[in-house]
Amino acid sequence: MSFLPSPFDSPSFRLAWLAGLSKKLLGAGSKNEVLDLIDDALSVPAPGGNQGVIEGLATLYRSQVGNVGSVFDQVDRVGRKGLPEVWAGDTGVLASDVVKAAGRAATQMSEAFQESATVLLTLADAIGAAQRKDEQGRGQLVEQKKMLGGRDGFFDDLRENDEEEWDRKNAAHLGSYAVDLMHAAVSEAQEATRVAARDLNKWAAEARAGKMETSELTAVDKLMLADAGVAGADTELNEILKAGELARASTRMDLLSLDDEMAMERMLAKSENPQERAYLMKALAAGHSVADIGEFQDKIHGKDPDWMRRHLTPVVTAEDSMNDEGLAANGSNNNTDSVTFDGQRWIQGGDGSEGTCVASSTVTSRAMIDPLYALELTGGPDGQEDDPDAFRQRLVAEQHRLHTEGDGGENWTGMGPEGQERINDTAVGSATGSDYQRQDLDSAADRRAVLTEVEKSVAQGHPVPVDVSGKDGAHAMTIIAQEGDMLQVYNPWGSTTWVSEDDFINGHMGKASDSDLPNAYSVYLPR
Questions:
Q1: Measuring CA to CA, how many Å separate 50 from each of 56, 124, 133, 181, 297?
Q2: What is the pLDDT of residues 399-442, one digit of tens each?
Q3: Pairing state between β 93-94 and 495-500
Q4: Residue 405 CB coordination number (10 Å)
Q5: Helix (H/G/I), strand (E/B), else coil: 104
Q6: Domains in the chain and their CATH numbers?
Q7: Cα–Cα distance between 354 and 363 in angstroms, integer?
């Protein structure tokens, strides 16, 4: 006996099915047709989920907040006593810095438990409300079925008096309304589940030190690597190592030979600041050999954290970047942040004049996850340059290389989807160990359905290319981060901005470019 998945397992299928039944009921021409359509609607499964179980899990999470709070209090007391300048861990970090990082980790853990509990309670309420709405719709359908009575025979169906016609039409009308209630229940449960998954995935990604399961580093070292942020910027918005990078670095550390492992530990211990250590592990996460990472350290060792930020982190997110400052005349957000190196933008063609948006987005995506690649572009062969003109020449040359590799159009214009997928695999997927696959978005429902995967990917540190279109043609950008219901978008015109989930779903992506390019029609998801 085989158990095949039912099409009703898909909320999208249930929504389409119920919408179709509601419309058919209004046009039903016989009593038997109305009864058949009611039976079809009653066969659709009710929204799943157990409200009580979800509430119980939320209560459990909330009960942990106090426990974490006591841990923070103990850490805080230690920190305020004034620790001596002693070293901890294998990589040589100050004990005082470790205590500060532990305090921040405890605070984040407390927030994670508290916010996750809130997310689960909200989900439980939404599931309960959806199930009650579904039950109300089903009850009305059963009432209409009883009111109509048994099925008509062949001769009964040939003639319908005025009273029978009234009963049929009334049952069809009320039945359509009842099916609409069931449709709304599925829709509301689906959206509540999506939002809960988004928020829980985000909080799971924030459990950062736990992503490093390697036994080759101490708990102190893992904590400090997870805590390292880009210099001079809000750490929570600008961690050097994303959750997926911490996990990949951990896995690759375990696969090193004994000699390479010892060399890596010596490099970490030699590092002069947390940022240097984090960039070394980021390079390991991007798949580089220990020998290459050693050469990389020689180029960045002794540099201050601000130098490393400029050379190794193309996109730095400002604390006020999500403020709503309205729209410009062309429909784009006023609140955008330029992506620059020494004043030169990371922009297609070096000045925005070329149509290499796909290749340019891919170049910047790779630079965001691979510090060796970023330094080759910003610092040149020896990694020491601080010349915006030389950077521009290298940037455009690399954009042209990927444009050619992806079979882009002549005169540096356009690229087909196969080429776009290919260069994302070779340039970005080769560093993350993932394979990009195109997913077409033909409707608002498609865009809503893909959001959970998009947001989970960027929370792990995997950029997600997004193609937009409109009367001005088509354009390629990249979704690079998510906070709440907001998505951060890099536009290869040389800037980043935030759009809402609603903007992505309902055709307002012009806020990240201009109003002539409103519709997201495809994304490329890392698998």
A1: 10, 8, 15, 20, 53
A2: 999 999 999 999 999 999 999 999 999 999 999 999 999 999 99
A3: unpaired
A4: 16
A5: helix
A6: 1-207 (no CATH), 210-307 (no CATH), 337-526 (3.90.70)
A7: 15
